[in-house]
Specification:
mainly alpha, 3 helices
């Protein structure tokens, strides 16, 4: 019975992770400018890869591997949004313009 529960939770994590990874990939293709693409990749991509990592750790049924998977997920959550912010700020300072449908620029100084 416990094996079925672990398999069901692993399957749910895999499906959710794949959905977020797909949303990030679609965002990279469909969004109009660098800033929106980076937002999609950093937010949805981080959650998607983290859920897939947790699914792999849970599927292993080894506490040491699961602990490493959780540590990796926390590392993703801490580093990906910060690095995306820094890259977007560098792109803004180098002169990359926002898309026409952007409402306002909160960093007008270059």
């Amino acid at each position: 019975m416990m094996d079925y529960l672990v398999a069901a939770i692993t399957a749910a994590l895999l499906i959710a992770g794949a959905f977020f990874a797909l949303a990030a990939a679609i965002g990279l293709v469909r969004l109009p400018d660098l800033y929106m693409r980076m937002h999609s990749a950093s937010k949805a991509g981080t959650v998607g890869s983290g859920l897939l990592l947790l699914a792999a750790g849970l599927h292993s049924q080894d506490l040491a591997i699961l602990a490493r998977a959780i540590a990796g997920f926390v590392f993703f959550l801490l580093t990906a949004p910060v690095s995306a912010h820094l890259l977007a700020r560098a792109a803004h300072h180098s002169g990359y313009d926002l898309a026409a449908l952007s409402v306002r620029d909160d960093m007008p100084d270059r």
